[in-house]
Amino acid sequence: MGNEPLDLKDEYFKTKTPFVTNLFKNRLKTAIKLASLKDNFDVIDVGCHTGYLLKMIKNYNPKINCYGIDINDGVFTPIVEGCDLRKADVRNMPFNNESFDILFVTDVLEHVEEIETAINEIKRVLKKGGSAILSGPTETWFYRFCRFLWLGKMHYSGHKHTIYDIERIFEKNSFKLILKKSLPCFPLPELFRITKFQKL
Q1: Of 2, 18, 12, 200, whose CA–CA distance to 106 is shortest?
Q2: Cβ neighbours of residue 143 under 8 Å, at least 6 residues apart?
Q3: How confident is the model at residue 158, as a pLDDT?
Q4: In this predicted structure, what is the pLDDT of residue 147?
Q5: Sign (positive/negative) of CA torsion 21, 35, 83, 127?
Q6: What pLDDT does 3 receive?
Q7: Which of 11, 26, 47, 95 has the greatest number of beta carbons closer than 10 A?
Q8: Residue 84 placed within a domain
Q9: What are phi and psi of 81, to 5 degrees?
Q10: CA–CA separation, 7 vs 9, rounded Å?
Q11: 8 A C-beta contact, residue 100 and residue 42
Q12: Which pTM does this prediction carry?
């Protein structure tokens, strides 16, 4: 995975392009809505970076137990109050079996080569009936065109999979598709998709 996910998340916040910043924030807001969070849920953000999503969750409901992991150094500053943050890899998470009600993995899995290993680890740490909330890029012609306008390049070697690939692999690994939402909204072509899967 390297440092690519961290670098791109930094770009989402540093950019002076409102469309990009709003699209990133809307993905997180949509992910929270799809999660149907409840009091005392155990929730983890995989690839939490500086904890932006966890802060949103705590603001939404301070009674939720929040955890976060990220593979990169130096991402846990400032510390997110009331959250357990650790340096760890999605392919080998330092948690017991069936630890979490909800697992968020937004804009992460497209960077992971060993995708089935990551998904099996997600399945291991989720409680039975728990939900995984995904977000990922479509890599369509429109997505690549927008990336060219924003970053000056059509292709990005850090993306190993599209959200469509990731969804298919989840469905093959004992997850049930519950909901999905495209961003931006119609009539613009789909750039990202946020999907809710339930562990069977």
Answers
A1: 12
A2: 137, 191
A3: 74
A4: 78
A5: negative
A6: 36
A7: 47
A8: yes
A9: -60, 130
A10: 6
A11: yes
A12: 0.87
Per-residue pLDDT at 6: 39
In a domain, 47, yes or no: yes
Domain count, the chain: 1
- Cα–Cα distance, 44 to 62 (Å, whole number): 14
pLDDT along the chain (200 residues), means of 10: 42 58 86 96 93 91 94 71 90 97 95 94 97 93 81 72 94 95 85 95
Structure confidence at residue 76 (pLDDT): 65
Q: Select from 94, 135, 92, 108 the least CA-distant residue to 49.
A: 108
User: In this structure, is residue 18 part of a structural domain?
Assistant: no
**CA-to-CA separations, 80 to 53, 115, 142, 157, 162, in angstroms, rounded:** 10, 28, 35, 31, 30
Tell me, yes or no, whether 70 lies in a domain.
yes
Q: What's the confidence (pLDDT) of residue 42?
A: 98
CATH number of the domain residue 146 falls in:
3.40.50.150
d(CA 181, CA 190): 10
Predicted pLDDT of residue 108: 93
Question: 65-70 and 175-183: which strand pairing?
Answer: unpaired
SS3 assignment for 78-137: CCCCCEEEEECECCECCCCCCCEEEEEEECCHHHCCCHHHHHHHHHHHEEEEEEEEEEEE
Q: Which domain holds residue 117?
A: 4-12+23-199
